[in-house]
Design brief:
521 residues, 5-stranded mixed sheet, 23 helices, 5 strands, 5% strand, elongated
Length: 521
């Protein structure tokens, strides 16, 4: 009997290793193929502004001697609270727990370059690890390779996910910790092993620290534990070890929030730190219209059909077999999670108008989780049907991959993109300024350059940014303590009337084909 059990364990372990190897290969092939077109791209196109700000944080850590507790970018006049009209006197800024940017700064030092491929390769690596945790989560739930790969393939070929998963935003590493935390929590529920509870809370705490919006899965896990006590164990008796770990998590998150608030009050911030609910029904209607128009940006058309058909098939199968939803079903956890995501969606509704990546911070994981539970509910089939399922997975996978690839190709093909033009104009500006004797410590004011941090990354200098050529802002920044002003020649021509008062105060030092350098008269 013992020999038989041993053989069964060896066989099961061999099967697990083979399936994990297949999943790793599939994730790597799809991931590298999706990331290849953009792996060395400077922040441009969709949300170049936010991406450049997070990129500059890593460079800021190199500039401040790797002082983790005082993150900084390259801008002295912050967006918050002064709306770029206040000289904060420092490039330090508040930011969500920037461990991701800190690691990138270390990698940049090791490789001896601040080129974007360093940042993108790190984000790609951490995102692929997250997808493997998603596979482990799905395999735990479905006990089926084809089903698990289907979920992972759908998740990673979501156009919005595929666009950002080798980018600069903290949403991607935060999602990795969410997937890891949910996997550990499912293992805890199934195996009753407290080690995985600690892992789950740790992962979800890091996810929240990196991206505050990812507090939703942490809260959902805590609420589901209360639900289990009330409706499954039928007594409100808190586990001391679980309670202590949750308290430690809350203290860690709360402590960093307080420190971040201190940094914001002291130095200002480039990053949003407040809720953005709708102020009127017009706001609600506008966001809903935008999201309807953008629906194939969140998930491709075939993915919409795949999710809806899987849910309908699962419901039909349960009805036909007269299956009931048990109190300990994970459907209740998915419901709690989805409700929390909808609350966050409501609280940040205005941001969804222009920021598609907020979908990744809110509704993306609940959709993936519900799809996984629906696929899990579908019956196991014989070998012939399994072979057909594998063929269908390849066909659907290729279709979803092409949709994601097409979306990326369309996004990065806009040659009129303002950020792309700005990056090109400031290419080589560091060497040009060096040749003119402009100190690396000089404070540069850029007028009309977009996004705000990109020119300073290219120039390898700090300074002031005025992205908008408006009288109320230009008149204010001209009073700042800058050493030089740089204006792109095309901006100077296009906005000459609005810049004439500023140009009267400046003296041209030198110019090249794309940018001009000035100082005060």
């Amino acid at each position: 009997m013992q020999l038989k059990n041993l053989k069964e364990n060896i066989s099961a372990n061999r099967k697990t290793i083979i399936e994990c190897a297949i999943a790793i290969a599939a994730i790597l092939i799809l991931g590298i193929a999706l990331a290849k077109p953009t792996i060395n791209h400077f922040p441009a196109f969709t949300h170049a502004w936010a991406q450049a700000d997070w990129y500059s944080l890593s460079i800021g850590f190199q500039n401040n001697g790797f002082d983790f507790l005082h993150p900084e970018t390259l801008i002295y006049n912050k967006q918050y609270p002064g709306y770029w009209m206040t000289d904060d006197g420092t490039t330090a800024t508040s930011a969500n727990f920037p461990i991701h940017n800190y690691i990138v700064a270390i990698l940049m030092s090791l490789f001896g370059t601040t080129a974007p491929w360093v940042f993108r390769c790190w984000t790609l690596t951490i995102s692929l690890i997250g997808l493997f945790f998603l596979f482990l989560l799905c395999r735990r739930l479905t006990k089926n390779l084809i089903k698990s790969l289907t979920v992972v393939c759908m998740a990673m070929t979501s156009p919005v996910y595929a666009y950002y998963f080798d980018g600069f935003l903290p949403s991607m590493p935060s999602l990795t910790f969410v997937f890891a935390g949910l996997w550990a929590y499912i293992v805890f529920l199934q195996d009753k092993n407290m080690r995985y509870w600690y892992l789950s809370i740790s992962f979800l705490t890091f996810a929240t620290l990196i991206r505050t919006s990812q507090a939703v899965p942490l809260v959902a896990v805590c609420c589901y534990e209360v639900y289990r006590m009330l409706f499954i164990n039928k007594k409100l008796q808190f586990n001391k070890k679980q309670t202590i770990s949750i308290i430690i998590s809350i203290l860690a998150i709360g402590g960093y929030i307080l420190w971040n608030a201190h940094l914001r009050k002291l130095n200002g911030s480039l990053f949003l730190n407040s809720l953005m609910p709708a102020k009127s029904f017009d706001d609600v209607n506008s966001v809903i219209d935008i999201m309807k128009w953008r629906k194939y940006r969140y998930f491709a058309e075939i993915q919409h059909y795949l999710v809806s058909e899987a849910i309908l098939a699962a419901i039909a199968y349960m009805i036909l077999n007269k299956m009931k939803i048990n109190r300990n079903s994970l459907i209740w956890f998915a419901a709690i999670y989805s409700f929390g995501a909808l609350l966050f969606f409501t609280a940040m509704l205005v941001q969804f108008h222009d920021h598609d990546y907020y979908f990744l911070d809110s509704l993306y994981v609940p959709v993936i989780l519900i799809f996984t539970l629906a696929v899990r509910q579908l019956p196991e089939l014989n070998r012939w049907w399994k072979a057909c399922s594998a063929v269908l997975l390849i066909v659907f996978g290729c279709t979803m991959f092409n949709a994601a690839k097409h979306d990326i190709r369309n996004t990065i093909s806009d040659t009129e993109d303002r950020a792309l033009q700005c990056n090109a104009n400031f290419e080589g500006s560091c060497q040009w300024l060096d040749s003119l004797g402009v100190s690396r410590n000089a404070k540069i004011l850029t007028l009309g350059a977009y996004p705000q941090n990109s020119p300073f990354i290219k120039m390898q200098r700090n300074g002031y940014a005025a992205m908008q050529i408006e009288d109320w802002l230009i008149s204010k920044v001209m009073d700042f303590d800058f050493d030089y002003v740089i204006i792109e020649n095309e901006i100077a021509r296009a906005q000459h009337d609005k810049l004439c008062n500023a140009l009267e105060q400046l003296e041209l030092i030198d110019k090249n084909r794309v940018i001009s350098l000035y100082k005060r008269k």
